[in-house]
Amino acid sequence: MKLWAISDLHVGYKKNLLAVGELAPHPNDWLVLCGDIGDTLEQVELALRLLNQKFAQLIWVPGNHELWTVPRKTGLRGVARYEALVELCRRHQVLTPEDPFPVWQGDGGAHVLAPLFALYDYSFRPDDVPIAEAVAWAREGKVLCTDEALLQPEPYNHVGEWCAARVAESERRLDEALEEHDLPTVLIAHFPLRQEHAILPNIPRFMVWCGTRLTEQWHQRFNARVVISGHLHIPCTRYVDGVRFEEVSLGYPNQWEARELRQGWLLEDHLRQILPAPSQDAGDPLAGYEFPL
Ligand SMILES: [Fe+2]
Ligand SMILES: [Fe+2]
User: Fold this and answer.
1) What pLDDT shows up at residue 263?
2) Domains in the chain, ordered, with CATH?
3) Which residues surround the ion ligand 2 when the cut-off is CB under 5 Å?
4) Closest-approaching ligand to the CA atom of 190
5) Residues of the chain with confidence (pLDDT) below 50
């Protein structure tokens, strides 16, 4: 019994939906879906139906795309949108950040699996850029995330406020889980926990929409063995303080097709083995890369 992870399936792209349908069944294993399954509730439901047939248990955390208000005028906004996604998952027996954290008893030993929703607050930026000016700084570099038009924070006034509330709630839940279970954890969140991992060579200033500095030490504070994230669409394995950080994105069709050509990654190679620890990790195509901001 293995634990796998993948993110950023973006099944609104027909090629991606077909790819999900082609994934081999793993009837005894669990799968973490680390956000950005799709843009609409219908797309998310379609993917959950397909993957529920292939895995024994699914675990989901939201990405920014699922949280978009679509249709733009009439769609659910902010927290109401998130709650509708949680309801949808529950109808399909998929675990979410709102459920008790399950204790993994499969291969690789007992771990608390912690699906988390912490969002971002524009604090990933150079130290000399004030948070309030981070979006303007990104725009100066010709980068603007669609979230600015489609991700609504209601009833909060600002995404940063929503993020602060989610971080506080997540920390409370993690403290509670660690009091109950003296076990290592697997932290699961769409956005990377550490700014140093928000490396995007083609659009470096996109880092502004990639996380919060409030989660920088979570891997140590909450006894993580593995941290899983997506969002960057640059799959890799990195290590910090002996903790394995897995970026598990599939990404847009042109991205995973290019990976197939350049790195020889087949579709199945995008399914990342989390537990037990794989004998060979995914590597880091950006190791040592320094880019200008
Ligand atoms: Fe994505
Ligand atoms: Fe994302």
Assistant:
1) 87
2) 3-275 (3.60.21.10)
3) 36, 63-64, 231
4) 2
5) none
